[in-house]
Amino acid sequence: MKPPFRNLARPKPAANSAASAAVQAKFNEALALHQKHQLAQAQALYQQVLKLQPRHFDALHLMGVIAIQTNNPLRAIELIGRAIELNPDNAAFYIDRGNALKALKRPDEALESYERALAIRPDYAGALYNRGNVLQDLGRLAEALESYDRALAIKPDFAEALSNRGNALKDLKRLDDALESYERALAIKPDYAEALSNRGVALRDLKRFDEALESYGRALTIRPDYAEALSNRGVALQDLNRLDEALASYDRALAIEPGDAEVLSNRGVALQDLKRLDEALESYERALAIKPDYAEALYNRGNALKDLKRLDEALASYERALKIRPDDADALYNRGVTLTELKRLDEALASYARALQIKPDYGFLYGTRLYTKLKIGDWSDAENQFAHLAEKIERNEKAAPPFAVMAMTDSLPLQKKAAEIWVRENYPGSPALPAIPKRARHPRIRIGYFSADFRDHPVAILTAGLFESHDRTKFEVTAFSFGPDSNDEMRKRLIPAFDRFIDVRNQSDKEVAQLARNLGIDVAIDMGGLTQDCRTGIFAMRAAPVQINFLGYPGTMGAEFMDYLIADTTIVPKAYQCGYSEKLAYLPSYQPNDATRLISEKRFARAELGLPDRGFVFCCFNNNCKITPATFDGWMRILRQAEGSVLWLREDNPTAARNLRKEAEARGVNAARLIFAKRMPLLAEHLARHRAADLFIDTLPYNAHTTASDALWAGLPVLTCMGEAFASRVAASLLNAIDLPELITTTQAEYEALAVEFAANPQRLRQIRQKLEGNRLTTPLFDTRLFTRHLEDAYAQMYERYQADLPPEHIYVALPPTPGM
User: Which helix (H) or strand (E) holds 312?
Assistant: First the structure.
C-alpha cells in the first residue's frame, strides 16, 4: 500500500520583523532540504529554528514528520502533539499524528486523529485518503472504499487513492472493479510501480497468471529494487509451477529486504514444492526468528514437517499457529490430516469439524471427514450424509477426495465426476514442460514404474514377482521411487528387480518428469493414482508419450493426461466404459500376484486367536473404512441366521472396535460375536491364521483387493457381491481368475443367502475349499509369469499405436472379448 499522505507545503510566513524574517529564511531552507529528502540536514535546521523560536509549531510538526520518516513514531507523536497544542486548528498536524499512531499499530487512535483533521477541513483529500488506509487496516472495507471515493470526488487525479481503492475492492473480492481502479491510477501516473504490483495481485486472484507476471515485470522495470513486486512475482511464478524462477524472485527480494518474514515463508513453500524439505524448514525457521508470532510461517512449517513424516513436531507447529489464529481453517484441516496419520482419529474428526464450522465449503473436507468417521465406525446419520455428498458432487462442488468416494458409493458416474473435480483443482494439465517430440523406436521398450510404495506395502507385495519376471530382452524397466527409503526386506528385494532404481523423493514433479524424458521412458505407469502420497503432478507434465493408471488406484483418474487404465472384462464391461476417462487395456485377469509368498507352517489354535473352539467363523480383514452401515446390516442378518457363528474382523483402531460392537448390539447381535484381530508383524503368520476362518465375506462398495488375494492364497474362500464401479468388482475378477465364479453374487439377498448356506452346509463349503486348493497353482490368478506376459503384450500394443501415430484405443490382450462385450 502507498505510504500515508503528508503535507510538506510551505507554511504561511510569520509576522514581518528582522528576527522573524531570519527564522523564516532558516525554516524555508530546512523545508527545501526536507522536500529533497535530505532529512538529517533538514532536522538540524529545524532545531536551529526552534532554538530561535521555541513555539514555531510548523518546525515542531515537520520535525515530527522526519521522526515518522526515520521510524521513530513515538518521538513523532511527542513533537506533533506539541505543535497541536500551539496550533490546534491545523488539519495537517492531525494527519501526521494519525500516521505516527498507525505506524505504532494503534489504528483506532489513528482513525480518531484523521477524523479530527476532517472536522477542521471536511474537503481535505489527504485526510480522507489516510482515513481510508486505516479503515482498510481495520478490515472495515466498505467504509474505506467510501473514504477513498470522497477523496477522489475532491481530487479526481489522486492516483494513490485510486490504487488503494483498488486494494479495498480486491479485498472485497470485486476483482474486476479493482482492476479498473488500478487502470485509472496508471492512466494518471503510468510509472506508478505500486499500482502495477497491486494490479498484478488482482490479476493473479483472477487466475490470469501470465498477465500478473507482465504487471510485476513493468513495476520492476520502473523500480528494480521493489522487493514487494519481486515477492508477488514469486507467488505468480509458483502458481504457474515455475518453481525455480519463483525461488530466484524470492531470493532477489530478500537481498533487498533480508528481514521480510513473509517472503521467507513463501520461499519455504517454493522449496517445499521443489521437494527440498530441509531447506524449506530452514526458511520457515528464519521467518519465525524474525517474527515468532507469524501464524502463516508456523502453519507452513507444520506442512513441511508433515511431509518429512515428523508428525509430532508438525502437530506442535499447527498448535502454535492456532493459538495465534484460532479460526485458521487451513491449519485445522492439516492438523486433522496429521492426527489421522498418527491414528488419533477422534481428535482428527474434532479438528475437521472445527474447520468446517469456520468454513463450511472448505475444499474436499466434507468427504474427508465422512471417510474418517467410517474409519472409526461412526455412522451417525451416515446414509443421509452419503446422499448429501452425492448431491454436492453432482453440483460440481469440491466435496471429497475421489479415493474416499469409493468407500461411500458404487455409482460409476459419481466416482468419475469426483475424480474430474479433484484433478481439475489439483492437477490441471501443466505447460511447465513442452510437448514430447516424436521418438524413434527403441530396441527395448522403456518402461517406468512410479510409486511411493516400493517397500513393505500391499502394492509391492502384489507386484514384486511382476517386476522380477519382465522379459529384459524386450523391456528396459526403471523404478522411480518417491516414498520413504524403508530399507526393509521388500525394498532390498525390489531394487535389483529393476534395470534402474532411482530415488526421486527430493526432486520436484517437473524434475522427475524431465528425468523420465531424458531417460527416454516410452511407457510411464502411475501406481499411486489419486491416493495418499501420490505424485500425479509428474504425469500432468507428461513423463512419457504413453501414461497408464495401474493397480494402486482402483478407478478412473478423470485426467486427460492419463491414456490407459489396466483392467479386465469383469471389472469394466463394455457397457461401463463411459465411466472412465482412460482407454481400457483389458488383460485376461487384472491383479498381479506373487506366487513365491511364504505361508507359515504354524498352526494357530482358535483359542490362541481369540476365536471360539466351535462354531462357524466368518472373516473380513478389510480396513474398517470399507465397512458401511449397509454392509454391516447384511453381516448382522447373516449372524442372526447362522447360529453360533462369529465375525472375525481386523482391528484398525480401538474406537472402531468399540463402535462396531455397539452397532452389533443395536441390531440384536451379541457384541461378543465380533472378534477383532490385531496386526501381526510377520506376513507369513498373518496368511497362516486365515486357516482358522471358514469363509471370507466381502464388503461393498469397496471390495477386498489385496486382502482377497491373501485369503485365496491361504486357501480361504471369498464370498463377494459385485457392484458397478471398479473397486466393487475386483474380488469378482480375482474369483474368475481362480475359476470360482460360484462365489460371486450380484445382489445383497443372494450374498446373504449364500453365506448362510455355507455356514449350514459344511459339505458344500468343503467342496469349495477343495476346488480352491486345486486351482491355486493351476489357474491364472497366481501365475506371475503369465500375468507379466499379458501385461507386456498390453505395453507392446500401446507402444505400437504410439509409433504408428495412432491415438490411445481400447486394447484386448490374449483373449477376445466375451459375447456382449
Answer: helix 311-324
Instruction: Report whether 712 contacts 779 (CB < 8 A).
Output: no
Q: pLDDT band for position 518 (50/70/90)?
A: very high
Q: In this structure, what DSSP letter does residue 726 have? A: G
- Looking at the fold, whether 572 and 674 belong to one and the same domain comes out as no
Cell (9 digits) for 351: 479438528
How many domains is the chain partitioned into structurally?
A: 4
Three-class secondary structure assignment of 349-388? HHHHHHHHHHCCCCCCHHHHHHHHHHHCCCCCCHHHHHHH
Q: Is residue 236 part of a domain?
A: no
Distance CA 551, CA 794 (A): 15
- Please choose, from the candidates 773, 767, 760, the residue with its C-alpha nearest in 3D space to the C-alpha of residue 618: 760
Is there a domain that residue 168 lies in?
A: no
What are the cell numbers at 593?
Answer: 500376484
Residue in the block written with cell 532545531: 47
Give the relative orientation of helices 57-69 and 18-35 as an angle to the nearest 10 degrees.
20
Count Cα atoms within 13 angstroms, Cβ side, for 5.
26
pLDDT number for residue 13:
47
State whether 754 and 695 are in the same domain: yes
Residue 390's contacts (CB-CB under 8 Å, 6 or more residues apart) are: 409, 411, 414
Question: Hey, what's the cell of 631?
Answer: 454392509
d(CA 646, CA 625): 20
What dihedral angle (degrees, nearest 10) is formed by the CA atoms of 111, 113, 119, 123? -70
Does 226 fall in a domain? no
pLDDT, one tens digit per residue, over 738-774 is: 999 999 999 999 999 999 999 999 999 999 999 999 9
Q: Is the pLDDT of residue 277 over 50?
A: yes
In this structure, are residues 398 and 363 in contact, taking their beta carbons and an 8 Å threshold?
A: yes
What mean pLDDT is reported for the chain? 94
| Residue 806 located in a structural domain | no
